[in-house]
Amino acid sequence: MNALPKFLTGRLFLGALSIGAVLLAYTAVTSQPDNNPALLPPIPHIIGSFFTNLSAGTLLDALWASLYRILLGFFIGTSLAVVVGCLVGWYKTVEFLVDPLIEAIRPIPPLAYIPIIIIWFGIEEFSRVLLISIACFMVCVVNVIAGMKNVPQVYVDAASTMGASRFQVFRTVAIPAATPFIITGYRIALAAAWTTLVAAELIAAPSGLGFMLQEGRRYFLTDQVMMIIVIIGACAFIMDRTFRAIQKRLMIWSETRE
Amino acid sequence: MPEIVVDNLTHTFGKGGAEALTVLEGINLTFENGSFTSIVGTSGCGKSTLLKMMAGLFDPSDGEMRLDGEVISGTDRRRGMVFQQDAVFPWMTVAKNISYGPRLRGASNSEQREIEAKWTEMVGLKGFEDRWPRELSGGMRKRVDIGRVYANDPDVLLMDEPFGALDAQTKERMQTDLLEAWQQSRKTVIFVTHDLEEAIFLSDRVVVMSARPGRIQHIENVDLPRPRKDEMRLTDEFIQIKRRLWGMLDH
Ligand SMILES: Nc1ncnc2c1ncn2[C@@H]1O[C@H](COP(=O)(O)OP(=O)(O)O)[C@@H](O)[C@H]1O
Ligand SMILES: [Mg+2]
What we know:
Chain A contains ten helices and no strands.
């Protein structure tokens, strides 16, 4: 490895190399004369679908509809998770009271709630946001609790002997010490939000990226399906990167910053 | 006037359970106001346990401790503690660590700056105020730890092997610095160590403990003159005390 020039072993170059290889292979397959574009649309078709939907406004409408649901559900779910997780992780009484409940609900995949939510609340915007909130809450709360429980005892003891009240210890020690876990919880919740969103929109939505996927399947618009998949991947990627940047900033004090 | 009294203290972890472990038994000690006492003993004899109970982090299963006649229960800023482990908050800069205690009690920004300036200087960390703990060496972090407890101005200083993890040179320098600071403030210091030389060099009195369960085996008054100088470590008197105490420790 040492003999190779540095840029040849760098992250950027190798990443571009692997993505480029996949695109090239895909192009090679789709340009075969016997390729059926309805099954494997060539890349120009996919790009064409992107511009068609962009100029028609359908793509942006779907994108906003989905982003709105994701962000709202994510915000509600994670906010509740932080409050509940802190209380459960810090106060023994609350833990004994609430933890069995969380442990019982935790293994249930959020998508299992779709039928009951539809029965109770109908195919409404509220139902979709609720589902995403539940998904975000469940994955995030577990991390917040773990963070609270992993606060090193010696920090708690040090703060107490300096005269900190129980609440002051919570505010000045437990919260910062648990930040790495909490941020991880946020990132996992974001991924869960995307998963749940697409599933919810596939089943029951008049708009959104999941809806456009479903529409593409129904009318055999494979290029549209492919295009939406790429859009979802790009959005999720950008949001995760944003989070990583925030994480890096907040965790500037930590020795392991990744 | 006697300051801290440990009265017939016994502690058993998991009392009543199958794995009950009596760590300390029948401990009686008096710490005079302003005195410097070291406690030595092999590891596992219950030194940390004793110190944590004096800090009020948990109650003894039997007997009690009093500070100026008042039974010790629960933590109090009057009893500050330097822990055996690294307890510097990694999410605060050196300066913010130092002023942590005063900030808890609502010290104004200018008061905090003043305290930070004074104590970073005292523990020899001037210029490192805005560094993160991860950027410091183990010895420097211990200085932050000690400075933070000092800046909180307790009456009693409980120190649990504070220099245990340091190299010999750093350790000797920090011992000298500690004595200097103590000479000025005259706080009551209870200093746990397993290093006999350190104990003799620093203290008015060395308490030797035996293990399993921890009991007090011997109390040695150290009459070496103060201020103590590094050369004293090599005097006959010093070495005689060291030899005597060495024979008492469980080896
Ligand atoms: N929280 C605890 N629960 C049960 N046993 C403990 C606990 N803390 C310490 N011990 C045990 O008590 C004994 C004394 O420990 P410690 O006070 O840390 O000794 P020292 O500081 O003298 O090395 C050890 O055998 C240790 O395993
Ligand atoms: Mg110990």
